[in-house]
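Quick question, first post here. What does this chain look like in 3D?
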Amino acid sequence: MARTPRDYPKTMASPETGRLMVRDLKPVTLKVDGKSFEYRQPGWWCSPDDPGDLDGQLVDKDNRVAEMARRTAEARARGEPFPPALILAIRLRCGLSQRDAGEVFGTGEKSFEKYEAGQITPSKPTQRLLRLAMERPDLFAKSPRGRIGAPTEPDVRLIRDTMRAVRLDRIYGPLFEGHDADARRDAAEAPAERPEARSRTIGQGAAGGGRKAPSPGAGRVRRTDDRSPPDRELAAAAASADDAPDGERATGHGQGEGR
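> Answer (accepted):
Ran it through. Tokens below.
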């Protein structure tokens, strides 16, 4: 095939045979390790529908398509789940440059350039992220201000479903519920008023013959666990030391740090 022309008309004469060529997509078959892979090659062709007639001409961007197709066919022949053309498609769907994609996926600024060039293959963790990006590209897109990363507002439904699936929504679910600015401000100011109100309540109870508040040195107060059995099971599961990372243990109510 002839090399890159300087002009880009819809039609042109073949520099080799003088035949009329038309800008179109042509089916091309690549053979790798005894396997056949077909793709459609853009360019100027004398016979776009005839796979056997290769009289045509390509420009630089057409040559890049041909190179990407070759690398992808080789990766598919090796059985790779994420060949270069698919990685390119995922990145473009997320609206990321190669440099931005490396930052978002945590693989390094040159990694996607090498993935798409077929020089290296993504690791297993990166492949999982690529699969997620195929399903939820919005999680990997840049914000309108150019900030890279996940959306600023959490996906409340997804969090709720995850918590519910492992029966932790009744314990930790409220931590992820949204609050407006007034609620957050009220919560921040509330602790300054509670100690005085609590002192007045304890003093009034003692004067009226009610139950006395325990003194600081009276030891720990044993509380009756009035939760329902499911709640106790969930709380025990949430505080289980077996689920904690190595070297960490959960500390329950009433356990001192000095023990």
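Residues 11-77 form a domain with the Ubiquitin-like (UB roll) fold (CATH 3.10.20).
The chain is about 40% helix and 10% strand.
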